[in-house]
Design goal:
It is built from two helices and four strands, in the order ββββαα. By secondary structure, the protein is an alpha+beta fold.
């Protein structure tokens, strides 16, 4: 079973300001501007978007990938493309 969460709490590494953001399900967000201090956050090396690096939840494509990888039984893949 795969429940895709689209809410992620992004925490700014510079000032600690955290905000709940809604993630687009079909795109990765690679630039995020902190509303606390104005810092421009970018994903760490190896991460596809700022939600994977700074968010409480990784972005939807990664959630799907992880749930498929850990799932013991094959599931029909969600139509992503
Ligand atoms: Zn900040």
């Amino acid at each position: 079973m795969s429940i895709i969460l689209t809410q992620s709490m992004i925490t700014c590494p510079a000032c600690g300001f955290a905000k709940n953001e809604t993630m687009p399900s079909d795109a990765c967000r690679i630039i995020y501007r902190c509303e606390g201090c104005g810092a421009r956050l970018q994903p760490a090396a190896g991460d596809c978007c700022v939600f994977c690096t700074y968010g409480s939840m990784p972005c939807p494509p990664i959630q799907i990938e992880r749930s498929e990888r850990t799932s013991p039984e094959p599931q029909p893949a969600p139509a992503l493309e």
